[in-house]
Amino acid sequence: MSMPFYASAEQIMRDRSEYARKGIARGRSVVVMTYTDGVLFVAENASSALHKVSEIYDRIAFAAVGKYNEFENLRVAGIRLADLRGYSYDRRDVTARALANAYAQTLGTIFTEQQKPYEVELCVAEVGAETADDQLYRLSYDGTIVDEPEFLVMGGQAESLTGEMGREFRAGLALGAALAVAVAALASVGGTNGAARSLPASQLEVAVLDRNRGPRKFKRITGLALAALLPADHGEPPSEPAPADTPPHDEDDGSPPR
Amino acid sequence: MLSSERAGGRGVEHGILRYATSPGSSSFTEFLSAAAPDLLPGSGPVPAFAPHGTTIVAAAFAGGVVMAGDRRATAGNLIAQRDIEKVFASDDYSLVGIAGTAGLAIEIVRLYQVELEHYEKIEGTQLTLEGKANRLSTMIRGNLGQALQGLAVVPLFAGFDLDAPDIARAGKIYSFDVTGGRYPEQHYHSVGSGSLFARGALKKLWRPELDTAGVVRVVVESLYDAADDDSATGGPDVTRGIYPVVMLATAAGTSRIPDDELEPVVRDILADRAARPGA
User: Is the ipTM of this complex over 0.85?
Assistant: First the structure.
């Protein structure tokens, strides 16, 4: 029997962090931001079937980047947790804070206990009765939970996108203006020689939590409704159309260089 | 221990992942029976002397389907409640009405509503109308043990079929029995203790060309006839302003006819009947 190599706890955690971070940065980005009627989700996603953004409960939605099977697992678990809570108590007792805590604990446990951390980054968002009540939680692969007041960017070149969003974001934007800001930020990286790209509607997955809707606030914006909302200069076809069946994890789909 | 077992294994305490059970199950009922079986309807002992709900009617029309229920619940010879609601929207395009043991029935409807929404959220698409009806029949079958003790729940299910080739025939009605048998019904149907009389009234009043206002009047009048002859069915109560629950499922979704729209319909029927005392 061979003795295992000694590796310090710091080294193990560093290695895992690096592994997870690399995996997350390989995918494409998701922008989640507040706007006047609630919360807007914009994901760069060539697939119209494998979603990165999903409804969890009446006022709660979920967005994720990273490895599809891992965040899909978490998404389903979140829906089950929320439905179980709502069924055993009341629909109003299901909150994003509780769900985000549950995710944080799970991700934290997986990060410390398992060989391979989850390569995912999640956002749990809840729309309130007023803009001040909207909540965005960012959850990292290691269980870190951050409450973001205005917007957050996950995956891909998140840092440079966050800078871009920070410059352009204004509180209380209308839906069309907010979408323009998010799409411009997503398109600001990955072009040739650092130039901006053009992102057509077919490459975007857009959804909102709209506080003015009925009990279920989540709504996807697709097809003509999305095309009508996008700024006019986003109509042209992409220079390199991605294959329709590209999974969201897009490990080797010609996504922008890291 | 294998890491996959720890991450996804059913019943393993591991944060929220203990809810991420084996893939393939989009059913909330199956999940609930594994995660919290004590929350399933009728899982504990139920006294046999519990309030019962009574007549539900449904009728198809050109734009979809309408369902209505009276407001009375009885416990033996007493009226347990005057304004109980027995017709519900199960999701955006379907309605469910219940006759039988009220407490159990309302619990089953609540579970059924979560079941449909749960499937829709996990799968990203709605069940077909046929699929929804099959799901309900499975849940009724699950209650068979209680049904044999006298706590039967008999639902009536109706909905707007988004896959129907012709909008005029998109309104569909399904009836069930306590063993979970599921039967598609033509044109109209009724369940509950007053259903015999309601069906007789529907037989004479229902016409294929009825519009929304017409079909609403027809179902309210059939409930009036049921209440006329069945002591467990409550008639419209103009003194207290208690009217039947009438709901529609159409291409625009489900909606409930508000009481202020029902009041003139009810008064019209009462005046009509007063003019024909023998009817």
Answer: no
